[in-house]
Amino acid sequence: MPSKIDQERVMLREAELGGLGSRLGTYVKFSGPGWLQSAITLGGGSLASSLFLGVLAGYTLLWLQPVAIILGVVMLCAISHVALSTGQSPFKAINEEINPVLGWGWAIATILANVVWCLPQFSLGTAAVTQNLFPEYKDNTNVEVLVCAILLGTAIAVIFAYERGAKGVKIFDNVLKVMVGLIVLSFLGVVVK
């Protein structure tokens, strides 16, 4: 029985023969964790920064959000290139091939960026529950803590599911792909309009 990597290689070869649409569909299918990163990046952090820039500069800095998205994609491509061409994790490759200071700086910056981008998700989730679903609990600190604990528990469960490769991860990935696609289309719609 061929390994999963061999099966994926066959699928990629078939996609190459099938044309552009087939290639794009196959690439989207194999791009699971990248969509999770995109969802984090396009979440509360983007919303908060876009609103803040809107308050400060009106529509004049609206172009900045799509540029930030493109830079994020370029950065993810660079990291994946390092990982794929060396066969090592990006952190290990940067530490060994370039400089440990750069590797650790990148790791610390990544953690800080994820904290900055992820923490607003708890705020948004709490606000969605206490203001929209259950407005009677709007100013109840215990309910806010409970909602944050549920969100954190869900995030931890998803992380462990990724480690095990559970089938629910595929459903989660597909939902994320649709949501990220809709967010990107919304950004493009606002920019074009």
From TrEMBL:
Molecular function in Gene Ontology: metal ion transmembrane transporter activity
Alphabetical keyword list: Membrane, Transmembrane, Transmembrane helix
Record's protein name: Uncharacterized protein
Subcellular location as annotated: Membrane
Residue spans crossing the bilayer: 39-57, 63-84, 104-123, 143-162, 174-192
InterPro entries attached to this UniProt entry: NRAMP_fam
GO CC terms in record: membrane
Record's bilayer topology term: Multi-pass membrane protein
Top-level taxonomy: unclassified sequences, metagenomes, ecological metagenomes
Broad class of where this protein is predominantly found: membrane
Source species of the chain: marine metagenome
